[in-house]
Amino acid sequence: MGTFKEAEARLFRNVYICRRCESKTRVPIGKVLAGGASCTKCKCKQLRPVRKKSK
Known about the structure:
Elements: H1 5-12, E1 15-18, E2 24-26, H2 29-34, E3 47-49
Antiparallel strand pairs: 1-2, 1-3
């Protein structure tokens, strides 16, 4: 099954993972870069983008 732009945007755009508890959150990139975004579970401010899995 092939991927298309809408599906990739839904899965990867503005989605970040907490480095401490590995929970997902959806926030704009500007807020992450400014340091204003935090994890909803543990309130940690260290977020990383979702990694695309290679096939």
